[in-house]
Amino acid sequence: MEPSSANTGFIQQQPIIKNQFHEDSTSPPSLLSSSTPSLSSLGSAVLAPEIFHWITDSERNTPYLRGSGRDAFGRPSSKQELIVSEGWRKLQEFGFEQGVVAINYDPTFSAQNGPYSRLVQFLRCHLWEASCANTLCPAAMQDGAARLLQRHLTTPELVGRLSEEEKRVFGNAYDHLTSRDKAYAWTSGQWMTERTGGSDVSQTETVAVYDPFPSSAGPDAKEEVPLALASKEESIPLGPWSISGFKWFSSATDSQMTILLAKTRPGMGVSAFMAPMRRYNPELVSVTGEKGGEELNGITISRLKNKFGTVGLPTAELELKGMRGWMIGKEGEGIKEISTILNITRVHTTVSSMGYLGRGIGVAKAYALVREAGVGKGRRLPLYKHPLHMRTLAGLTSEYHGLMLLTFYTLYILGLDEHPSSSSSPSQISSPSSASPPSPLHPLTPPPQLVSSLLRTLSSLHKSFICHTSVPLSFGCMESLGGVGYLVNSESEHLNLSRIFRDACVGAIWEGTTDVLASDTVRALKHPMIGKEGVEALEWFVGTGLGLAGGGKRGEVERVRKVWEGLKRKLERGRQEELLPEARGVDT
């Protein structure tokens, strides 16, 4: 018998994490054979050692504000600086170069994939999520802002309302948002939350005033004065709206632009605005005496939030005083405009939950291959042969598979909504390899008139259900590693399931909590104008799905049919105020 020491005796073999694109049986197969090489390559790249070094740096060197807002002589400093870690910047640049957002807006990619573009894009996000240290959060808002601007720049009735200057400003922003060039690409903020309530934007206290003349021109100015510049190099002007207020929970504070909501007149409702984060100030004086430079665009960062998870992501309270911006869409229709972004950011949030859970299951499976456990009378078994442990992992995997099916079906509907002119027959979509996309989704392709209604319902429903359900499942993965799972394993960052669990918890909170989105589902289905179409879309979905079930599942089919018929009766006969207390039951 030999005593063990710090370096001798039993030392656990290191689990080997494998490429999730190949090892995760739940991931959908490549819809086009031309996508397989890039997806396989990305699955390997996200597990590279430098990626995990950047994650650790992002977690340890959290964002901070440089200075106190005043210079050494007590004068207010207009050049407030937010500092993020090098690891955060490197991970964000990796995402730009991989095109996790830009790929969906590539004309060639979009033409080849049609309504399947979103599926392929989000499969890339799924592989990247657990390694990105939350840089996909600003990327989600970048994606939503790009889609919003794309609608206004390409939809005939919308682009016709834009001035030539607005077309140039919006087009410039769109080009930045859809670029893979790390030196040119932008992310975007999405500022709605205020102290009056997270998702209750009707109580917004931010106010926008139309003021096309700079204050220096004076109220009696007779001639139009050119607006100051958001970017001197690109000669992009600041907007004619002056926005002031206080935003309580603003993610992506290091972004280059933002989409936000503000009120313009009493009784008008909220309007949507696009604003650059920074502006050029010719009066700024550098420490060497040079005049001119960039400063925040009427923004003061009051403080950064100290959060349970997502610690590398800069989230802040922001005070706006005379922030210059451009209105998007019609005055008072900000909620309609922001819904375009929400449809996308909610999907991103759901995919992030699935990305965390998929990585967690991958780590748990890898650990089961190298760890042994006692089973009594001196016997030991590898965990992958331990019946109870494998039953637990099988249960986690089964739940994960069901959640992934709902996630990627929602993505398919999003793709159909963004490509309304595409044929609903997968066999008619071309690809360079001449291989047609597989057909299993085709029977569940809704009639064109039901696509928007089904997306409207699924947008809230899938996010509330999946993000809430995935949290205990992610904890189960962490638990499967025993005490090692509870450690903050920055020494072995690829096994750090405690970080993944902390970050996964936020999915059920931001972009609408479970209760908020469950209530939103009920309100959508009871809406006097669109509710009937929503119920009709669900009726089609449930009926078609049950019709595809095999004959050996008759009992399950009848149980689901009975549940749906009961829910449908409630939706048709019950009043909204009666259904809201049961909204979570509707979602499940």
Automatic annotation (TrEMBL):
Q: Which UniProt keywords apply?
A: FAD, Flavoprotein
Segment Disordered: which positions? 423-443
Gene3D superfamilies with a match to the protein in the record: 2.40.110.20, Butyryl-CoA Dehydrogenase, subunit A, domain 3
Please list the residue ranges annotated as the Acyl-CoA dehydrogenase/oxidase C-terminal domain.
Answer: 459-524
Q: Which GO terms describe its molecular function?
A: acyl-CoA dehydrogenase activity
Keyword Flavoprotein found: yes
Entry annotated with the keyword Flavoprotein: yes
What the entry lists under InterPro entries is as follows: Acyl-CoA_dehydrogenase-like, AcylCo_DH-like_C, AcylCo_DH/oxidase_C, AcylCoA_DH/oxidase_NM_dom_sf
Pfam families, per database record: Acyl-CoA_dh_1
Family listed = Belongs to the acyl-CoA dehydrogenase family.
Q: What is this protein called?
A: WGS project CABT00000000 data, contig 2.14
Q: Which organism is it from?
A: Sordaria macrospora (strain ATCC MYA-333 / DSM 997 / K(L3346) / K-hell)
